[in-house]
Design brief:
Number of domains: 1
Strand order of the largest sheet: 1-2-3-4-5
Order of helices and strands: EEHEHEHEH
Length: 124
């Protein structure tokens, strides 16, 4: 498991590259650190590149992720594109994450195409 963060588009978009297998505690640690980078930089666009990630996370922990966003001060106006692994791997978990985030006021959208994800983030 590994993750890294970098800014793209002249610092406008934060890219979080997530690779390998993550347990629930590891995923929450990665999420906390990524949220800290985003809030410190006041990032309003985030690319979560999960195309090479595998999450071993109970669904209840997925449900709690937006609580972490709220407690860390993530603004509801932030756009987050999630690039999913190819072949529909863990698609149900990603769709549940998208639904939970949207139900709590976070603008998250799933993508299978990296080009489409970047285009969506660059809109407006």
């Amino acid at each position: 498991m590994a993750w890294s963060t970098e800014f793209r588009d002249e610092g406008r978009i934060l890219r979080v590259l997530i690779e390998g297998r993550f347990s629930a505690p590891q995923a929450m640690e990665m999420t906390r650190e990524s949220v800290e980078v985003a809030t410190r930089a006041r990032a309003t666009r985030i690319m979560l590149d999960c195309s090479k990630a595998k999450f071993d996370i109970p669904i209840i922990d997925v449900y709690k992720v937006p609580d972490l966003y709220s407690s860390r001060g993530v603004a509801h106006g932030v756009r987050a594109a999630v690039l999913m692994p190819p072949g529909g791997v863990d698609r149900e978990m990603y769709e549940f994450y998208e639904d939970v985030c949207r139900n709590r006021g976070y603008f998250v959208k799933l993508f299978e195409s990296e080009d489409e994800a970047w285009a969506w983030l660059r809109e407006a």
